[in-house]
């Protein structure tokens, strides 16, 4: 015959198991809503961009193929949102009733946190290295190690920079590019978000939130780009974006080499 103490211990274990399930369910709900909010903000931006392109299309001043590609991006974002909401709904079927029955009269005061961490010291050092005129460093790349963002590489060769981004990972890049002409050479800075085409829906959705975290340190740049294809990592395209952001360049067309 089991002792009352053994029954008490077993009952406590069952209760603790149900509390853990409740905590996991709460964590999942918080994560899903954070991801949903981030994707809704991104969806607004995409819709705004497509609206502008439609106006240009009516004026005959845009590339129809580019518009088609943008519409496909919008469709993908909407599919991602649907998947997140559906996944959250399906995952929400955890034994909530069982948890509630065991939870009566008790409260779980543990605070759930799902925030991505930063290796602030190395990220800030790399950021200041790229910005410094006294070092040859032209770029830095930041990647995820578990739940933390760290500086994974820095250098001066753009060809090497291009090799830092694979199809199955997320990352950030910070670059210094020389712009202007022979009359007004100047350095400009660009922030890049990379989401590879093989990145999962959930990690893709988290990118907007994680980007906001790292921008707490990397805050000074003229242009911000989000890229998802290797062909988009192109120095001429980067410089064109910086030129459009900074206005026209004036000069004789002869450059000092």
Automatic annotation (TrEMBL):
It is found in: Cytoplasm, Cytoskeleton. It comes from the Eukaryota. Keywords: Actin-binding, Cytoplasm, Cytoskeleton. CDD domains: ADF_coactosin_like. One of its GO terms (cellular component) is actin filament. InterPro entries: ADF-H, ADF-H/Gelsolin-like_dom_sf. Signal peptide: none annotated. GO terms for molecular function: actin filament binding. It holds the Pfam family Cofilin_ADF. Gene3D superfamilies: Severin. GO terms for biological process: regulation of actin filament polymerization. SMART domains: ADF. The keyword Transferase does not apply. Interacts with 5-lipoxygenase (ALOX5/5LO) in a calcium-independent manner. Binds to F-actin with a stoichiometry of 1:2. Binds to F-actin in a calcium-independent manner. Has no direct effect on actin depolymerization. Acts as a chaperone for ALOX5 (5LO), influencing both its stability and activity in leukotrienes synthesis. Belongs to the actin-binding proteins ADF family. Coactosin subfamily. This is Coactosin-like protein. It comes from Bombyx mori (Silk moth). The lineage of its organism: Eukaryota, Metazoa, Ecdysozoa, Arthropoda, Hexapoda.
